[in-house]
Amino acid sequence: MIGVAMIVLVAAAVYANGAQPQQATPARATAAAAPRRAAPATAAAGTCVQCHGDVVKHPVVHPKATECESCHVPKTRDAHQFDDKKCTVCHQMVKKDDKFVHGPVAAGECLACHDPHGSEEPQLVRVFGADLCQRCHVDMKARLAEKRFTHEPVKEDCATCHNPHASPSKYQIRVDGAEQCLVCHKTLRKELVTARVQHEAVSVDRECINCHDPHASDLGKQLKGTSMDLCLSCHDREQDAPGGKVQNVKGWLETHTDLHGPIRQQDCVGCHLPHDSEHFRLLRKDYPETFYSPYNPKNYELCFSCHEPDLAKVERTATVTGFRDGDLNLHFLHPNRTEKGRTCRACHEAHSSTEPKHLRETVPFGEWQLPVGYTQTPDGGRCAPGCHLPKEYSRKLAQTTHSPGER
Prior knowledge:
Elements: H1 2-7, H2 43-52, E1 60-61, H3 87-90, E2 100-101, H4 103-106, E3 118-119, H5 129-133, H6 138-146, E4 149-150, H7 152-156, E5 166-167, H8 178-184, H9 186-194, E6 197-198, H10 200-203, E7 216-217, H11 227-234, E8 239-241, E9 244-246, H12 249-255, E10 258-259, H13 261-264, E11 276-277, H14 301-304, E12 324-325, E13 328-329, H15 330-333, H16 344-347, E14 352-353, E15 362-365, E16 368-371, E17 375-377, E18 380-383, E19 391-394
Antiparallel strand pairs: 1-3, 2-5, 4-7, 6-11, 8-9, 10-14, 12-13, 15-16, 17-18, 18-19
């Protein structure tokens, strides 16, 4: 499907000269632009222009337009016929490394895109930019009309991304993979160079089109699907990642149905950045990387961007949290420690769980997945982690299993 979509851009304006800019799009000719004058007519051409004077009355004129005999054989029945192969005498458009040649070029049909004498447009193209391509690629024209968002280069000139003659890359892309996108998206290029963590979909596969449609989409930023659909199209299996493995998130969500808010809203980018990040797992903000960590509010910036920061700051409360023993805030008691503070990940799953409040079924203890043993009660709950004694809490009546100074 990607191949069909990508090849549609290929029919870009075929440049008339051999010196092609790598990324730049030629400026469009205007009525105010100075016309390109043809050379003085040869003696033979002087006879031709008596009838064919209109061929030089254009803002852009082919240099050979007044040397008619360089392309035509006068005084013959076929004097008006033109052999496209004559273009290649001067214009060598296909280079040695060009594995992919545009159809009209391969067929020797230069005149499909160019007027051999003169034009209102640069490079002697018959129509400027995307309008020229869509004369053949009518399916793309229809598709663009029905989509909500169109990529800016597609609106103007397909040749921004595609070489209209030939290229070493499939679909005549000027530069392979993500490099083509980064020609324009320079800010992202800088980020990828300096970022602590890069998404391997960008840094390894180098294929922006895994997630983005290069032409048009009904979703912003030309996305091919919602953020969750796109993420789960790769994260449907365990993946290698710096610092360890990334779980099969799709499989996990199918069996663990108590969903974290952003997951419930199908918004993976609520917590993760899609391209690169300064935080592990491509997270948007700081989040503890370890099970135990001394308390520092900065380490919880990600969680507190949605959750109330007082959860971990206020020791006594009757309102801030339901996770309390009487008025003793157990969200304060667990993480707010100078040593071995229990981070959010110690009790909660970031994506989903089979337990309420996204509580974990097990927690890692060395190589042992220690069962939490959580049970919900009408006024609170109870947990019995592994070989530890059970701990119980009640919002109405403080239990003796927790004490204010317990650390």
